[in-house]
Structure formats: structure tokens, C-alpha cells
């Protein structure tokens, strides 16, 4: 009877842990959507709200960590339960980073809202929607402990990386064609990089879900198609420099 | 006697865990120094070696994680021992990211080595040296479990962030003055951001050391002086666009 009681209490604590992780995931998704909206609509006020909203994610991370440490100390879990708790610890660390990156996008949005002209934002919006979809699926895969969905998320990260590489080249050419947009393009490139990194962290979470569900350790090899580090756009030499 | 035996075995496993974490820290420091050298000397071959070297860090992370999970499962540690193991898990996750960022710097170095002309690299080199010093101190603070040193590292992160913000403005002006260096400056800005992020992660590790040593949970408030997201350099309108 005492054993049954302990098991029920442990299950309740584990459920509370899952709920807290999901709450943090929901906040991250909301922050990302808000940051992308503020960027697309040049809405500095909305962006400022997103920046302020990051504190709630940090607070939840601290709470979840305290829960995991208490569970480890008091319950001394084994096998699947242990993996569940270790995965939560790793997942919230990724979620906290994702929240930071959403905040970074919002900070760029504040600056961009004050600039006189911006380059076309279509590629960035497309990339943003892809990453929002990854984050939504990541949350569903965690809630349902769905290894198939988690594996599919991991495979999609390569597409986001490829989109970012294209965008990097595109923005380099805008900068060369329209030097007055150099500041805007630079901030947009960093915003794009932050969005791409949110996709990377969603992929890390997907790998933690695979580990949680069936003990698979994440493979170090995954699609790495962000080749933007190697991108070069050669300028046509401006007339003023040809002499 | 059996108890004494178990304690000795546990201490040996904990020492092995510490040694593996430190080995990973040493590799990260070496990779960072190599990446900065390859950038400063435009040495694509050295940069390529650094890129290849990241796999060893990833491999060590996997090994340390397996060690921590085994220790949690078999030893069911309490109090300081539990914190020690949780801290190791969090520290190696930061070290893995630091290794990735060193690899990112090296990737930029490969591209930059192929470009015809670069802007002045003095600020970047200075920032790089500051972060290398932080990483070296981070390793020492972990090895000696030195909370005073760990707290000092955390306070220094603000200086690196401030240096990055200055550098961001500086490179925006280079791009406006010399459009033929836009590609180079963009890659250098991302390299600088990666170096700044290595400093952030060294700071996270310092906070994990504080937690390990005396159970202090990291404060969410720390010096945040990277204001580059808000930096704007307004262009003087080029002559070619004045008509």
C-alpha cells in the first residue's frame, strides 16, 4: 500500500513536470510568433512586449530545474523515469535558449521599425513560418511522446538551414545594391540567424524526445545544410572605385 | 567495509567525470585559440583542421552524458554529489555549444581567407583574447571549485558584450565606406557574434560552478551589455545616389 502510494505520488510529480515543460514550450511558441509578427509589421510596441515576456520563460526554467533535482534526489528514479527527468532538464535548457532567440529577433524588430526603408522580407517570413511549424510539432511530439514525429522534425532542420543560406546570399546582394540599407540588412541577417538557431534547438528537443521515448542517444550526424558561413557575393565594382 | 568500498568507487567515478569535463574544456579552449589564429592569419588550412576537430568535443559530450546518467541510476547521489552531476550535465551542454561556435568562427575564416581585402581586425582580436582568458579561468574555476573566480567570470561577460556592440558599429561603418568589403564585414560580424556567444556560455558554466559549489541557483539578472541589436549607423548618402 505504501509502495502504491509512493508510485502514485511519483506519477503525479512526473505529470506536473511534463505540464511545466509544455507550459514553457507554449510560451516559447507564443514569443516566437510575436517576434515574427513585430518584425513583419514593424511594430516596436509589440516587439517591446516580446522582449519583456522572456523573463517568464527564464522563471519557468528555474522552476522546472528545481522540480527535476527534487525528483532525482527524493525519488531516485530508474530507466525510463530517469530518462524522462534527464530529458526534461535538457529540453528546458533548449527552450530557454529558444526564448532568448525570440527576444533577439524582437530587439532587432525594435531597431528595424525605426529605419526609413527595408529590403523585401518575404524569405524571412517564409523561414519564420517553417520554424513556427517545427516548434508546434516539437510540442506535440513531447506531449504525445511521439518518436515518429520527433524524427520527422529532425529531418526538417536541413530545409530551414538551406533557406537561411539562400537568404544570407540574398541579403548580401541587397546590401551591395542599396548601401543605404546596410544597417537594416545586417540586423535582418542576425534576425534570420536567430530564427535558424531556434530551428536547431527545436531539433535538439526532438532528439531529447527520441532519447526519452526509447533511449536512443542523439546522433551527432544530422542534416547540416547551413552553408551560409561559406557564402560570398562578389560585388560589381562601383564606378566610384574603378579609378 | 562494504559502505567504504562503495564510497571509494563513487569518488573514483566522480573524479573520472570531472576529468572528462576538464578534457572537454581543454579541447574547447584549444579549438577557440585555433579558430582565432586561423582568422587572424587568414589560414584556411588551420581553419579546416579546427572544423574537423569539433567532432571530438561532440564525442566527449556523449561520453560524459552517459557517465552522468549511469551515476544517477546506480549511485542515487544526494545533496552536493547530486549537484555535482547535474552541473556536469549542464556544463558539457554549454561546452558543446562553445565548440560549435569555435567551429563557426573557423568556417568564416575559410571564407575570409579567400577574399581579396579585409577591414582592420584589431577589435576582433582584442575581443577574442578576452574570451580566451574567460575560458581559461572557467576551466580553472571548475578544476578548483573556486566560487570567487566563477563569480568574477560572470562579471566580465558584460565587458565582452560591450566590446561586441562597439565592434558591430565599427563594422557597419566599414561596410558603408567600402561596399566591396560588405561580404567580408558580414562574415566578420557573425564571427564576432560567435565569439561573444562563447563568452556567454563560459558565463553559464561559471553559474553552474557556483551552483555546484554552494547550491546557488543562477540569477537571471546579469550584466547584459550587448546592445548591438539596437545599433544603427546612418549612411552618408553616396554620391552615386544623390541625383
Describe this structure in words.
The structure is a homodimer of 243-residue chains. Chain A is 79% helix and 0% strand. With 243 residues, chain A is mainly alpha-helical. The first copy, chain A, has one domain: Phosphate transport system protein phou homolog 2, domain 2 (Methane Monooxygenase Hydroxylase, Chain G, domain 1), CATH 1.20.58. The radius of gyration of chain A is 21 Å and the shape is elongated. Residues 236-243 of chain A have low confidence and may be disordered. At the A-B interface, helix 2, helix 3, helix 5 and helix 6 of A face helix 2, helix 3, helix 5 and helix 6 of B.
Q: What would you say about this model in short?
A:
Chain A is mostly helical. In chain A, 79% of the residues lie in helices and 0% in strands.
Percentage of residues in strands of chain A? under 5%
- CATH architectural group of chain A: Up-down Bundle
**Number of helical stretches of at least 4 residues of chain A:** 6
Shape of chain A: elongated
Give a quick account of the main beta sheet of chain A: strands, pairing sense, barrel closure.
none
Rg on CA atoms of chain A, Å: 21 Å
Q: Which chains make the largest contact?
A: A-B, 52 and 52 residues
What ranges of chain A have pLDDT less than 50 throughout 5 or more consecutive residues? 236-243
Listing every helix as H and every strand as E from the N terminus to the C terminus, the arrangement of chain A reads: HHHHHH
SSE class of chain A: mainly alpha
Mean pLDDT of chain A: 89
For the terminal residues of chain A, how far apart are their CA atoms? 91 Å
- What is the count of distinct domains of chain A? 1
Can you count the beta strands of chain A?
Answer: 0
**CATH topology-level name of chain A:** Methane Monooxygenase Hydroxylase, Chain G, domain 1
**CATH superfamily membership of chain A, which one?**
Phosphate transport system protein phou homolog 2, domain 2
Amino acid at each position: 500500500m505504501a509502495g502504491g502510494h509512493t508510485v502514485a505520488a511519483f506519477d503525479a510529480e512526473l505529470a506536473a513536470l511534463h505540464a511545466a515543460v509544455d507550459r514553457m514550450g507554449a510560451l516559447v511558441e507564443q514569443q516566437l510568433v510575436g517576434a515574427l509578427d513585430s518584425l513583419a509589421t514593424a511594430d516596436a510596441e509589440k516587439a517591446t512586449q516580446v522582449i519583456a515576456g522572456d523573463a517568464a520563460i527564464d522563471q519557468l526554467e528555474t522552476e522546472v530545474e528545481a522540480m527535476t533535482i527534487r525528483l532525482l534526489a527524493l525519488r531516485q528514479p530508474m530507466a525510463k523515469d530517469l530518462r524522462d527527468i534527464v530529458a526534461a532538464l535538457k529540453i528546458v535548457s533548449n527552450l530557454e535558449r529558444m526564448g532568448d532567440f525570440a527576444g533577439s529577433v524582437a530587439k532587432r524588430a525594435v531597431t528595424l521599425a525605426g529605419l526609413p526603408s527595408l529590403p523585401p522580407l518575404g524569405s524571412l517570413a517564409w523561414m519564420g513560418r517553417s520554424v513556427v511549424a517545427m516548434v508546434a510539432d516539437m510540442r506535440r511530439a513531447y506531449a504525445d511522446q511521439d518518436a515518429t514525429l520527433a524524427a520527422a522534425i529532425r529531418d526538417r532542420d536541413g530545409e530551414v538551414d538551406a533557406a537561411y543560406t539562400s537568404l544570407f546570399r540574398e541579403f548580401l546582394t541587397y546590401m551591395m545594391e542599396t548601401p543605404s540599407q546596410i544597417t537594416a540588412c545586417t540586423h535582418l541577417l542576425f534576425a534570420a540567424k536567430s530564427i535558424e538557431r531556434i530551428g536547431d534547438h527545436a531539433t535538439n528537443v526532438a532528439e531529447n524526445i527520441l532519447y526519452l521515448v526509447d533511449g536512443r542517444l542523439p546522433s551527432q550526424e544530422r542534416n547540416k545544410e547551413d552553408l551560409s558561413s561559406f557564402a560570398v557575393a562578389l560585388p560589381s565594382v562601383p564606378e566610384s572605385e574603378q579609378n
